[in-house]
Amino acid sequence: MKKIVFLIIIAFTMAISQAQNTTDGLRYSTQHHIGTARFTALSGAMGALGGDFSALSINPAGGAVFLNSNLVLSASLFDIENKANYFNNREKSFADDVVLNQLGGIFVINNSNEDSSFKKFTIGLNYDITKNFENELYIAGTGNNSIGNFFLQQAQGIPLNLLQLQSGESISSLYRYLGETEGTKAQNAFLGYQAFLFDPVDPNNPSNNTFTSNIIGGNLNQEYAYLSQGYNSKFSINLATQVTDNLFFGININTHTINFDQSSFLLETNNNPSSMVNRVGFENNLSVTGAGISAQIGAIAKIANNFRLGLSLDTPTWYQISEETSQYLESRRIVEGQTLNEFIDPRVINVYEDYTLRTPAKVTASAAYIFGLNGLISFDYSYKDYSSIEFTDINDSYNMYFNDLNNTLENTLKGVSFFKAGAEYRVNQLSLRGGFHYEESPYQNTETVGDLSGFSVGAGYIFGHYTFDLAYSRSEQERSQQLYSVGLTDVAKINTIYSNFVLSLGFNF
Predict the structure, then answer these.
(1) Pairing relation of β-strands 355-358 and 318-335?
(2) What is the CA radius of gyration of the chain?
(3) Partners of 357 in the beta sheet?
(4) Is the pTM of this model over 0.85?
(5) Residue 258: is it exposed, middle or buried by C-beta count within 10 angstroms (0-12/13-18/19+)?
(6) ∠266-268-270 over CA atoms, to 5°?
(7) DSSP state letters, 86-144
(8) 411: which of 21, 96, 300, 494 lies 20 to 30 Å off by Cα?
């Protein structure tokens, strides 16, 4: 796993302005199609089947379908391939990660009272990695819009004296002060000014608040590298019961954990004779931790000997999230024939106030048909409204800071449907499996992020009390990635292929 190295901490700052956006909300609200090997091979279409630890994450009533107490652990090889097209230049990048992605145990308590409607009770514990954040993206191309515009636009309106070092001030102390009093916009403007990416229109006026770029247009060669790592995981306590021979009910109490690190670096060069600055390097780092809680309820009914229906409801997940950021900027300029290099390294980590995030609720309806001991087919339909994602400032009861962002989420995201289908065919102790999954784009404009679709295959074998299962899942999605939110807003077209290889070992007792 690649390590993302942060700048040396010499000061902590509480910035008044944070930079959450739509991408952050979706990052923690979406999941990958991984779990146990059987669950993965059926593309997760197990809401009416149960009897599988990852199926409990779809419908908690599946805990009562287990016939025996059971232990299962699963390991996965996660692979991601990105193909980027930026100004007709195509680049490929790859990342992979090996993790223990699932571990669970369930205890089945059969009711010895044969006259009771409650046939058995089950208590289960399960850990799942619901999303792997391992990623590597490389974008390169030649455009005519400079990274300097990112800094220039944020500087406009800021008085010149706020960006200049005063007597006794250091880069670190002023950068920290701006974060505490003005926010990240002023910090970015300060970096750009100190790196000579722009100059004031009236350099003799301390109140000057308009600036002009020192990077003249033309051909600008840009390389953008993005690395991320971490995971979103869920630990569930499952309680389920079987009532009569045909009804199963269950609940999950879930705790969630976020660990996410990302680093991006943009290198821009040019050979334009009229440009004072001909090289810029800009690094951004983000580290996120979070904890959350949610619940699920569900039911499975045997309508006939071979036909089952399932229904489940996931509550929203409520997270409390902490973020830290750091930045670094370098430039090279030509002044009177001399080459000067600037390295603006504040060596400050911005530590922001915690905030809360509410991810959407989800409802799932499922159906399955079982062909005796020979196999099955199953289908799940889910609905999730991503426009209901909500950020909240825990110290502001009126939530004034996040109002604009929440309105943006409501106006740009939408409710989506998930379709999953799976089939299994059994020959003695051998099971062969396959599945298909399709998920609509969460964006109203599907050019931003397209629909996700994929397939899965797998096999399993029973060795007495032991089970051995393998699965492969592949998903593909296209999106348009804007490099920065302001200034350098050029878009790269990204095609992403997610692959998962899962191995599960189980023990029945």
Answers:
(1) antiparallel
(2) 27
(3) 319, 391
(4) yes
(5) buried
(6) 175
(7) ETTEEEEEEEEEEEEEEEEEEEEEE-S-TTSSEEEEEEEEEEEEEEE--EEEEEEEEES
(8) 494
Is residue 183 in a domain?
no
Q: Is 342 buried (19+), middle (13-18) or exposed (0-12) by CB count in 10 A?
A: middle
Cα gap 251→236, rounded to integer Å: 10
Give 306-375 as a 3 state SS string.
CEEEEEEEECCCEEEEEEEEEEEEEEEEEECCEEEEEEECCCCEEECCCEEEECCCEEEEEEEEEECCCE
Q: What is the mean pLDDT of the chain?
A: 93
For residues 122 and 237, what is the distance between their CA atoms, to the nearest angstrom? 11
Q: How many domains does the chain have?
A: 1
Q: Can you say how many angstroms the Cα of residue 457 is from the centroid of all Cα atoms in its chain?
A: 25
Contact 439, 420 (CB under 8 A): no
The encoded tokens of residue 127 equal 């850990």
Q: Confidence class of residue 397 from pLDDT cuts 50, 70 and 90? A: low
Return the closest-CA partner of residue 460 out of 402, 375, 388, 392: 375
Phi, psi of 339 (to 5 degrees): -95, 125
The residues near 308 (Cβ < 8 Å, ≥ 6 apart) are 48, 49, 300, 301, 302, 366, 367, 368, 369, 370
First to last CA, the chain: 36
**Are 126 and 171 within 8 A, CB to CB?**
no
Across the chain, how many H-helices and E-strands are there? 7, 23
Return the ∠ at Cα 304 (arms to 243 and 418), rounded to 5°.
85
Share of the chain above pLDDT 70, in %: 95
Residue where the block lists tokens 């062909």: 371
Tokens of 13: 């700052």
DSSP 3-state percent helix, strand, coil across the chain (nearest 5) = 15, 55, 30
Which one, of 106, 182, 185, 128, lies nearest residue 152 by Cα? 185
Q: What are phi and psi of 151, to 5 degrees?
A: -80, -40
Name the residue range of residue 377's domain: 12-146+215-508
Say if 305 falls within a structural domain: yes
Give the largest Cα separation in the chain, rounded: 97
Which tokens hold the place of 345? 């390294």
191 belongs to a structural domain? no
Band the pLDDT of 19: cuts 50, 70, 90: low
Give the residue from 383, 39, 10 showing the smallest Cα distance to 171. Answer: 10
Q: Where are the alpha helices (DSSP H) in 115-226?
A: 148-155, 160-163, 171-181, 184-194
Other C-beta atoms closer than 10 Å to the C-beta of 369 total 15
Residue 351 sits in a domain whose CATH number is 2.40.160.60
**Given the DSSP bridges, would you call strands 12-13 and 349-351 parallel, antiparallel or unpaired?**
parallel
Residue 304: inside a domain: yes
CA distances from 116 to 67, 96, 111 (A): 18, 51, 8
